Amino acid sequence: MTATFPTSSRLTSTAPALRQRRPGPQTARAALAQYLARRDPLQDVDLTFPERTWVRVEQGVDADIWLITWPVGSSTGWHDHGSASGAFVVLEGALTEYVWTGVATATTLASPGVQEFDGSHIHDVVNHGTRTAVSLHAYAPSLAAMTRYELVRGRLQVTSVEQRGETW
Fold it and tell me: Please, what are the domains in the chain?
């Protein structure tokens, strides 16, 4: 297995300029592209492990990179990423992202699908497929908090706030 990533000349030409302002989705996407240019994250992934796993594979100045495996039926539940913007690329399989904007909308991303988001993004990511999926996520600035939500009578309600170092 090898990971692929949709490339753009825009990623390499704008990366230095992005460091001069608050990191955002473009910074996260550029961090993913740079990581994948140096490493194949699929090389050591166990696609038979029965639970969703996540591991921070790089902690950088501009972004943190996380590798997540998604067995069939696994999901994140509704959450945000604090003030961090981000991007993720599906490396293997397919994932459905439900985004909350007052209503839930769904988009299914198959490898090598990429999604970018800003710091106000609330979503739930689910593997509805028939095989384990793998994705690589970048958060800029570094992921420091996540708010968890529950959908109650058509509205999202905060259930908890996780801080870096407590749960992950």
Answer: 9-163 (2.60.120.10)
Flag whether 121 is marked binding: no
**Annotated binding-site residue? 79:** yes
According to the annotation, is 137 in a ligand binding site? Answer: no
For residue 168, give the 3-state DSSP assignment: coil
Spatial distance between the Cα atoms of 164 and 162, rounded to a whole number of angstroms: 7
State the Cα–Cα distance between residues 57 and 120, nearest whole angstrom: 24
3-51 pLDDT per residue, tens: 544 544 333 333 444 344 566 788 899 999 999 999 999 998 999 999 9
Q: What are phi and psi of 15, to 5 degrees?
A: -55, -50
Closest CA to 69 of 26, 125, 147: 125
